[in-house]
Design goal:
By secondary structure, the protein is mostly helical. It is 56% helix and 6% strand.
């Protein structure tokens, strides 16, 4: 048995779901503008669009935003050696990053300056504020819940597993088995064949 299948799950010890549903994910997105100031909005959107961890987003420098390839390069956490990964981002979000943080201007002078200068605690609070504004409560109302929902969304949209694995920075495909246990439209479709 692998670590992913035996010791990690999408439900806590009480059976509570640890991921956002598609409706909660949409509510989170819609709540961002009213819940946060401009700089924290871009931070919340980075987590939403990329599925990254809080600490990975906080470590992003201006130089790791790639306007040519239209994405961001993260230093992957929880790996023994330094591993970097590229994650594509929507063009409109890249424009917003530049508007708020002057990314392209800063890139001309230096590449090492971090985009967000907030602490991990402040970042966590910002995501919690958005969850509150969206009316999302429970164990899923966390940055990890948002990360989990990123994977589940892409699975339901039939994004190839190897792409999801790359974007999330996983060393092995074991985690895909865990996410495959989430209740989604595909699972309901399989079950519905018996109901007809």
């Amino acid at each position: 048995m692998t670590f992913a299948s035996t010791e990690w799950d999408l439900y806590d010890e009480h059976g509570n779901r640890k991921y956002l549903t598609p409706e909660e994910r949409e509510a989170f997105f819609k709540a961002i503008p009213n819940a946060l100031d401009r700089e924290k909005r871009t931070f919340a959107l980075m987590l939403y669009y990329s599925g990254c961890r809080i600490s990975e987003a906080l470590a992003v420098t201006h130089g790791r935003i790639d306007y040519g390839k239209k994405g961001v390069v993260f230093k992957t956490l929880k790996r023994r050696k330094s591993v970097f990964r590229f994650v594509p981002l929507p063009g409109h979000f890249l424009t917003k990053l530049d508007d708020v943080h002057q990314v392209e201007d800063v890139q001309k002078r230096t590449s090492g300056k971090k985009i967000w200068s907030i602490s991990r605690t402040t970042a966590w609070r910002a995501i919690s504020q958005v969850m509150d504004g969206a009316g999302i409560e429970g164990v899923q109302a966390t940055p990890k819940g948002l990360r989990h929902s990123f994977v589940i969304y892409h699975q339901q949209e039939n994004t190839p597993d190897h792409m999801i694995q790359k974007w999330l920075g996983w060393a092995s495909r074991d985690m895909m088995e865990v996410y495959g246990r989430a209740v989604g439209k595909e699972e309901r479709n399989f079950a519905a064949r018996l109901w007809e």
